[in-house]
Amino acid sequence: MKKIVKLMLAGIALCLLISCSGKSSRETFRMNIMTDPDSFFPWESAAAETAAINYNIYEGLMGFDADGGIFPLLCENYTVSSDKLTYTFKLRNDVTFHNGEKLTAEDVVWTYENLAGLNGFTRRNDKFNIVESVSAPDKYTFTAKLKEPAAGFISLAVQPVLKKGFAYAQTSANGTGPYRLKFYELHQKVVLEKNNNYWNSEKEAKIPLVELHIINDESASMIALLSGQLDLIHKITANNAKSLSEQFNVNSEPQNMIQILGMNTKSKYLSDINVRRAISCAINKQEIIEGAHDGTAIELYSNFSPIMKTYYNDNLKDVTPYNLEKAKEYLSKSAYPNGFTLTIIAPANYPMHVSTAQIIANQLEKINIKCKVTLLEWSFWLDQVYSKADYEATVVAFGGKLDPSEIFIRYYSPYKRNFTRFNNAEFDKVFLEAETETDPQKRIDLFKECQKILAEECPAVFICDPSDNVVMDKALRGYKQYPISYYPLSELWFE
After folding, report:
1. What is the mean pLDDT of residues 211-238?
2. Residues of 142-154 as b/e, b for ≥16 C-beta within 10 angstroms?
3. Which DSSP string do the residues of 279-325 spell out, in sequence order?
4. Which residues contact residue 402 at a Cβ distance below 8 angstroms, ignoring those fewer than 6 apart?
5. pLDDT, position 69
6. CB count in 10 Å sphere of residue 137
């Protein structure tokens, strides 16, 4: 009876979100998203789900494929100087922004000046600190000079190129991508329309209109799919996906996503490494995978997924394994041997994080750590936890990145979004060495060392890489799972 009532309430809520007057047109693709976008201005956005939308609106000098490969996009080609400090990009001369203005090297210079904080601009992205200067030798040539060699620089070039002089804001967008922002209705939906002036005829959008409906209730999403009002739903439990497998196509794959129990290493209790190690050993990750992810996730031991196999350190399983006796031993060595009370914040919009937080709370009781689970709406979580680090512990997931340096910078002490406030001199040293190392094998070894330090120092409990369970209309074609947060909308079509 409770389940029937829940489905009825979800159906009523759904009618408020999506018109119940008819089914999805083959000229329109409709899917669910979990939260409101935090900003269509890429430099002000921090949410992975927003980035997944924005990659359809904006493009970088370089693009990426489903295997994580990097290729020229807004540039025809690029060259690197013999000292590996100067990158020269030859831009395409047939690209226009959504507002009708042409892309030129002046736009790229302005974009990278902002990203790197050059010529009086405030740096928008700490990764671009390695850029010493940028210039435009001519209208369609862009040059970036680095302070020192950086093997990961070319992967940074997937960052969106913006139009100089356009008034970018939270709800306005102007990119060069295959879709343009048509309108956004708070708590309701984002609507994208095909860019009819897209420069790449081979990669242009096949479906004219896309509606992204903001539905964070799983039952409501399922009802919308079953009634034909959505064509695809994602981030649902494996069991629910399986229940729909006869009527729909189901895709379930790891996402290169890292779910963690993030610990504020500057907070009273969690500044003690023995407390952090005790918590790490007290958490049964397999129980979380079964209870919060229906068994569809890969257990992790550091802030890195085996999906990125080239750089993955596979020797960390036994650093802080699930072991209650070991957990109690670590706690007895800490300044709080009798336990304490811990507040865990979870973003309310994500059921898997809420369930994980509740399971962790039950597990930590076994070592006399009493947990209070507090839920925050996503926008409040971004402000309080991600921006201000005003918390003790939190359950969240880091979205995937194409280059390891973009993953590990989250624990680099000067990084402004290092919300665990992890400050470890050895980690900083190894990370900076990896940043400038151009020998592939040495770079791999350094990033593996970064993983080892994180596993030992425990700024977080690294739980799992959860699979994204996607259920879609059987006529829908072209869906792929990417190693970063991205909805490949222009690749979709109905057969």
Report:
1. 95
2. bbbebeeebbbbb
3. HHHH--HHHHHHHHHTT-EEE-SSS--TTSTTT-----TTSS-S-HH
4. 64, 68, 70, 155, 158, 483, 484
5. 87
6. 10
Tell me the CA distances in angstroms from 258 to 67, 408, 427, 444, one per residue in order. Answer: 18, 12, 19, 19
Locate the DSSP E strands across 172-290. Answer: 179-185, 189-194, 209-214, 232-233, 249-254, 258-263
pLDDT digits (tens, 9 = 90+) for 319-344: 999 999 999 999 999 999 999 999 99
- Count the Cβ atoms, other than its own, within 10 Å of residue 203: 14
E strand map for 312-450: 340-347, 369-376, 393-398
Residue 239: CB atoms within 10 A of its CB come to 11
Residue reference for tokens 């799972």? 481
Task: Name the residue with tokens 């007290």.
Answer: 282
**Taking a C-beta distance cutoff of 8 angstroms, is the pair 123, 115 a contact?**
yes
**Would you say the pTM of this structure is higher than 0.70?**
yes
In contact, 74 and 176? CB cutoff 8 Å = yes
Q: Are 260 and 460 in contact (CB under 8 A)?
A: yes
Whether the Cβ atoms of residue 371 and residue 344 lie closer than 8 Å to each other = yes
* CA–CA separation, 176 and 165 (whole Å): 15
Residue 463 backbone dihedrals phi, psi, to 5 degrees: -90, -65
Sign of CA dihedral 269, 271, 272, 277: positive
Q: How far is CA 356 from the centre of its chain?
A: 18
Spatial separation of the C-alpha atoms in residues 44 and 169, rounded to whole Å: 9
pLDDT in tens, 244-270: 999 999 999 888 999 999 999 999 999
CA atoms within 13 A on the CB side of 191: 10
Other C-beta atoms closer than 10 Å to the C-beta of 128 total 21
Among 14-28, 268-282, 304-318, which stretch is predicted with the lowest mean pLDDT?
14-28
28-87 per-position pLDDT tens digit: 999 999 999 999 999 999 888 999 999 999 999 999 998 888 999 999 999 999 999 999
Closest CA to 215 of 350, 33, 357: 33
